[in-house]
């Protein structure tokens, strides 16, 4: 491995570039029923319908970071991390979502933050990663404005408890995903298919975000920055035919700009408002919302990128009696010859990461940003274990390297991109896919007491981080 670091550096990144990885509470902490944690929607859904999770594996143990965080942080240090994003579990910190703060959770998150800092790794903390406390889902989750206020209170408590040491904060990870999963496409609890309710959930998430930003400004954390993490899946039209271009524009409005514009520009795109209005789906709003969004834009944008979204104009008239879904406006387009990750079923299109960054530079004031997730989930990685027990994941190294080349080009072209975080540090639990696809730089052996082993990509990533390039 060492000889790689002696190779000449072709792609050098700016000094201080953030190298690290990202994860979320539900996906790695485990201890779901320990330490005073309340239930969240994942604990509940798994209890109700375990068969909907790959191999029937639920969120109770996951990677057991709750107990092994010291060992794990030591490994992060070993593979060159200078930063690491995790999320706080709302239902661990405040078991009912509102009400009492759980002192055991405060101790745990303090210990994690202190251990990271002592290891020279900057903690990036996200407040919400798909994990609504069950008590709040039971009163409607994001559909209920009381939950929005409960979230703003939770955010303030986090700033107060941890803001002396945590300087990079994020309100939500991929807020469109709970809308899609929970209210459109049935892959998250509460498994509702209803466009109107989906729009309301998305809108309230934006209000919750803006209230958290307002709370952050009030907390006046010295040297602190607040942002949001968005999966800015770029929409590519099949062709330049106006109908295809329009289809891609609508997909972009619904899935990307519904969060990007309010978060960065402080207002919704006029085209989106008109589209929703035309079809009678404008959300219920309150006086003062517009100003709240306008006044509380972000400092720092996290960009998650996995795959492009290719669309074309609709080829058949939609069934007017079927539920109204975004696919009223476009069909998905499987581009012939596209490169695929067959395990996850996602196209690999490296240039997409550059297209997003250029869009942010040209249309979003070149706001400070970073790649907050990018990665490749692969099934059956054990077959790549070599005689020393290490997983030779050359495909992952190639995946990262080819994306980083485009990030580098964006840097050269003046994009204000400050770092690259891989999804993820160690193999973790991927929602209904459970442990099907592995994403980590570090393998977690489920059949061997969750033993951690650095993969070849972990050692490669270390040389990249240490050389600040490759
Ligand atoms: C992102 C999420 O969408 O992608 C993660 O922020 C998720 O929570 C990751 O695990 C990989 O996707 P998946 O569905 O394969 O787990």
Automatic annotation (TrEMBL):
One of its GO terms (molecular function) is hydrolase activity, acting on glycosyl bonds. Gene3D superfamilies: Glycosidases. PROSITE patterns: GLYCOSYL_HYDROL_F1_1. It holds the Pfam family Glyco_hydro_1. Keywords: Glycosidase, Hydrolase. The active site is at residue 373. Its EC number is 3.2.1.-. Belongs to the glycosyl hydrolase 1 family. This is Glycoside hydrolase family 1 protein.
């Amino acid at each position: 491995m060492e000889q790689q670091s002696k190779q000449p550096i072709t792609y050098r990144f700016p000094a201080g570039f953030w190298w690290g990885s990202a994860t979320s509470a539900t996906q790695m902490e485990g201890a779901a029923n320990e330490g005073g944690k309340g239930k969240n929607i994942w604990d509940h859904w798994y209890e109700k319908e375990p068969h909907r999770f790959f191999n029937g594996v639920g969120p109770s143990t996951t990677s057991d970071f709750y107990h092994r965080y010291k060992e794990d942080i030591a490994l992060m240090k070993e593979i060159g991390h200078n930063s690491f994003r995790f999320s706080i579990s709302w239902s661990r910190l405040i078991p009912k979502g509102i009400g009492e703060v759980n002192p055991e959770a405060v101790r745990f998150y303090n210990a994690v933050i202190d251990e990271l800092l002592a290891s020279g790794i900057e903690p990036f903390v996200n407040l919400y990663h798909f994990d609504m406390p069950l008590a709040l889902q039971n009163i409607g989750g994001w559909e209920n404005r009381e939950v929005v206020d409960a979230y703003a209170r939770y955010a303030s408590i986090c700033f107060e408890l941890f803001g002396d040491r945590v300087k990079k904060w994020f309100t939500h990870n991929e807020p469109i995903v709970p809308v899609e999963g929970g209210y459109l496409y049935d892959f998250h609890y509460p498994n509702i298919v209803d466009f109107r309710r989906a729009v309301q959930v998305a809108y309230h998430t934006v209000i919750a975000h803006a209230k958290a930003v307002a709370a952050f400004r009030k907390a006046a954390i010295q040297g602190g920055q607040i942002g949001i993490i968005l999966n800015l899946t770029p929409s590519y039209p099949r062709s330049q035919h106006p109908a295809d271009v329009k289809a891609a524009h609508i997909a972009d409005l619904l899935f990307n700009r519904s969060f990007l514009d309010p978060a960065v520009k402080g207002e919704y795109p006029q085209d989106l408002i008109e589209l929703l209005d035309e079809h009678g789906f404008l959300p219920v709003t309150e006086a003062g919302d517009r100003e709240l969004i306008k006044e509380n834009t972000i400092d720092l944008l996290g960009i998650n990128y996995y795959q492009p979204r290719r669309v074309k104009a609709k080829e058949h008239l939609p069934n007017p009696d079927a539920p109204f879904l975004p696919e009223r406006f476009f069909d998905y387009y499987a581009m012939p010859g596209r490169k695929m990750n067959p395990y996850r079923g996602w196209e690999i299109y490296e240039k997409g990461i550059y297209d997003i960054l250029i869009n942010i530079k040209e249309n979003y004031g070149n706001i400070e940003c970073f790649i907050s997730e990018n990665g490749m989930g692969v099934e059956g990685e054990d077959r790549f274990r070599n005689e020393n027990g290490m997983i030779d994941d050359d495909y992952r190294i190639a995946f990262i390297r080819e994306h980083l080349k485009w990030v580098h080009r964006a840097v050269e072209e003046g994009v204000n991109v400050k770092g690259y975080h891989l999804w993820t540090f160690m193999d973790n639990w991927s929602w209904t896919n459970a442990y099907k696809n592995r994403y980590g730089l570090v393998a977690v052996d489920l059949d061997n007491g969750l033993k951690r082993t650095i993969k070849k990509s972990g050692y490669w990533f270390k040389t990249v981080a240490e050389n600040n390039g490759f």
